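#data-curation
PF: Archiving a pair of folding outputs for the training set. Convention for this channel: one message per protein, sequence first, C-alpha cells after, nothing in between. First:
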Amino acid sequence: QVQLVESGGGLVQAGGSLNLSCAASGIMFSISHMGWYRQAPGNQRVVVATISSGGSTNYADSVKGRCTISRDNAKNTVYLEMNSLKPEETAVYYCNAHVLRNFWGQGTQVTVSS
C-alpha cells in the first residue's frame, strides 16, 4: 500500500519560511519522480517543483529562487524548502510520486498571512 505523508505546513507571516516533508512508503522511492503541488481554494492543482530519480529539479516560474526541492533516498523522503512566502501562496500543498502511475498524499495546509 502506497502512502505519502506530508508534514511541515502551518501558518507563517508573509516573507517567512516553511519546510515541508513528505515521507513515502510502499513504492520504489529511489526510482520515483517526486513533486510538490499546491491547490488554493477554487483553483486547480498546480506544480510547484519536481525532482527526478536522478536529482534533476524543475520549478514553477513563480517560485524560482525562493524554493528548493530535495530528496533523501535513504529516508524515502522528499523536501520542499520555501522562503519569502507570499499570501497568494496560501494553499494545500500535496506530495506527488510518479512511478508507473501517480500517487498523492493527503496534503498539508500552508497559510501565509499578510
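PF: Second:
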Amino acid sequence: QVQLVESGGGLVQAGGSLRLSCTASGSIRVINHMVWYHQAPEKQRELVALITNGGLTNYTNSVKGRFTIARDNAKNTVSLQMNSLKPEDTGVYYCTAMIDFRDYWGQGTQVTVSS
C-alpha cells in the first residue's frame, strides 16, 4: 500500500516562509514526477510546482521566484520551500506523485497566510 503524507503547513504572516514536505512510503519501485497542487478556498485545485525524477522543475507563474521544489530520491520525499508568502497562497496544498505508473495523492496540508 503506497501512501503520501504531507507535513509543514500552518499559519504565517504575509511575507513569511513555510516549508512543506511529502514522503512516499510503502512498496515503491520507481517514482517519476512529483507535484504540488494548491486549492484555494472555493476554487479548483491548481498545479504549483513539478519536479521530474531527473530533477527538472516547472512552476506556475504566480510562484516563480518565491517557491522552490526539491526532492530526495533516497528518502522518497519532495519538499516545497515557500518564501514571500501572500494571502492568496492560502489554501490546502496537496502532494501527488506517479509511483510505479500510478498516481497517488496525499491528504493535503493547510496553509494560511494572514495579511
